[in-house]
Amino acid sequence: MAALTRRRFGLLAAAGVANLAAPSLVGAQGVPRVVVVGGGAGGATAARYIAMDAGDAIDVTLIEANAIYTTCFFSNLYLGGFRSLASITHGYDTLAADYGINIVNARAEAIDREAKAVRLADGGRVAYDRLVVAPGIDLVYDSVPGYSREAAEIMPHAWEAGPQTRLLKDRFDALEDGQQIVIVPPPNPYRCPPAPYERASVFAHVLKAKGHMASRIIILDPKPKFSKQALFSEGWEKYYPGMVEWYGPDVHGGIKGVDPAAGTVETDFDTFHGALVNVIPAQRAGLIAQDAGLADESGYCPIDPASMRSRMDEAIFVLGDAAIAGDMPKSAFAANSQAKVAAMTVCGDLTRSEVFPASYANTCWSLIETDDSVKVGAQYEPTAEKIASTSHFISQTHESAKVRKANFEESLGWYVGIIADIFGA
Ligand code: FAD
Question: Ligand 1 mean position to 372 CA, how many Å?
Answer without folding.
Answer: 25
